[in-house]
């Protein structure tokens, strides 16, 4: 940290005869002189080229929530478009029947998914 001298004002407000104080100079005052390193995360090696729409650090629940959302969307699509049963969806996606029921229930609450079979 660099210290810069500052002259303290006297009680009358004039500059004459005041004591000199040393205050720390702000190192972060000019961000354009800061070197930023784009190290990414475990999802992608670079933040600037990351395929995620929203950063995993900004998403409540992190990566798991993002992955769960993608999985749930595929479950909803299989149910809606291919009209598969819960058992068939669970086998195809590789999750339990309970997970499929939860995804369909969330879909009904959020977007009007038809009743499951």
Structure description:
The chain is mostly helical and 117 residues long. The protein has a domain at 62-111: Arc Repressor Mutant, subunit A, CATH 1.10.10. Helices cover 37% and strands 9% of the residues. The protein contains three helices and two strands. It has helices at 62-81, 86-93, 97-111, and strands at residues 3-7, 20-24. Strands 1-2 form a two-stranded antiparallel sheet. The model has no long low-confidence stretch (mean pLDDT 78).
Please report the number of helical segments: 3
User: Could you give the distance between the termini?
Assistant: 67 Å
Strand content: 5-15%
Task: Give the topology string: H per helix, E per strand.
Answer: EEHHH
Order of adjacent strands in the largest pleated sheet: 1-2
What is the approximate shape? Answer: elongated
Helix content: 25-40%
Rg calculated over all Cα atoms = 29 Å
What is the CATH class designation of the domain at 62-111? Answer: Mainly Alpha
Please tally the β strands and state the result: 2
CATH topology (fold) name of the domain at 62-111: Arc Repressor Mutant, subunit A
Structural class: mainly alpha
Oligomer: single chain
CATH architecture assignment of the domain at 62-111: Orthogonal Bundle
Write the layout of secondary structure elements.
Blueprint: E1 3-7, E2 20-24, H1 62-81, H2 86-93, H3 97-111
Antiparallel strand pairs: 1-2
């Amino acid at each position: 940290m660099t210290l810069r001298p500052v002259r303290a004002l006297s009680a009358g407000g004039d500059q004459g005869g005041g004591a000199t104080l040393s205050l720390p100079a702000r190192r972060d005052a000019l961000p354009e002189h800061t070197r930023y390193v784009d190290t990414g995360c475990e999802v992608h090696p670079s933040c600037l080229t990351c395929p995620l729409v929203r950063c995993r650090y900004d998403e409540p629940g992190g990566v798991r929530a993002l992955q769960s959302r993608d999985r749930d969307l595929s479950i909803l699509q299989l149910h809606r478009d291919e009209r598969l049963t819960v058992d068939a969806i669970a086998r195809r996606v590789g999750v339990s029947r309970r997970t499929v029921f939860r995804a369909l229930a969330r879909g009904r609450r959020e977007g009007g998914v038809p009743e499951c079979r």
